[in-house]
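Bench notes, bay 3.
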Amino acid sequence: MSIFRHKSFLFVAFTFMAFVPASQAQGPADIRWGEEVSGLKVRIRECTESEREKEKAMMIFEVRNTSDQPVEFCWWQSPLEKCWTANRFKVMGPDGEVAYRGAVVKRSPPSKKNGDYTTLRPGWTLGVKFDLREAYGMKAGSKYLISYEGTLLSLPSSNSIKIEVP
């Protein structure tokens, strides 16, 4: 096995262990999911009081496979990437749309052999915690309407939620 393939395999294996391993988790029942595309649904939700961190807009991003077959998808341009690479959220505040301050990454098309795709088993949910203030200029004490805009690669848009930044 080449070093590159070995590193890709380790990255994908670590990815599954590093995320909130919500293999069968449902999350709060009252929080809607976004639209369904190719068996995948995405939702964002605010962290519970006990999961929050001071002065952060901690949220959870979840992808769920609603089909009865495994679904493969590219995780680029989503919080699953664990870094900001594109403006994929719509953040509306008291003064209108909030500007994106994160990186914009240009790269070659995704490749299965490079580990740019992951497979989600039927009924499983993959989630990750993230701080939206890392990439958006949100002010403490303000209220915002937030949604994930989806990607051209494979992830659909999410639900919309209202939060107040601590």
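Next record in the batch:
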Amino acid sequence: MIDDKNIAKARQRLLKEVTEDALYTADWTGRKTFSAPVMKALEVIPRHLFVKPEHAAAAYANRPQQIGFGQTISQPYIVALMTDLLDLTGDETVLEIGTGSGYQTAILSRLAARVISLEVIEKLAFRARTKLHQLGCDNVDIHVADGFDGLPEDAPFPAIMVTSAPQSVPKVLLAQLAPGGRMVIPIGPPHGRQILKRCTRTSSGSIKTEDLLPVSFVPMVRRKSEN
């Protein structure tokens, strides 16, 4: 049974676990703690609204969950880590590749001026758009589009987050990264060794890439033709 009292307890337990995980993985990520705004977003965004109703009681467990269509809602620790790695100041437009449930989108919406999110599965995009509207996340735009193409008409972006794993870093997305911009992306084969990377465009225009942490994400796929 999920109620306000149980949710409050579960959220506090989750925050404690994420804090412990951050410390445990600091040798890989370089981050012993995550910023206060990131942790606050993790606390206040109602994760149980982004999972299947039958999974709501376990929504604040620190693990990924299935959301249908072969997709998952990421582990809260990974959501917090990837968000923290973007080093958002609050005035950025963030490009998110892979809306999924909309949970990561909601977290980003609290920390950025605008979030543009691309999703290849139309039904997931519609569902996420509805949830985010209900929560008042009015700085979010969701497009049904191929993430491999990015969004050149709105580029360059100071921050890009990719929530599924291509086998190599898409050059098109790197080209849409602004000077000083950061992209956080998992890279690797489906069901194989994947690494979370952070790519930063330096002031000279070159790309600095950091390998951070072993991860497991669903593969990044092209949008299928509806014809």
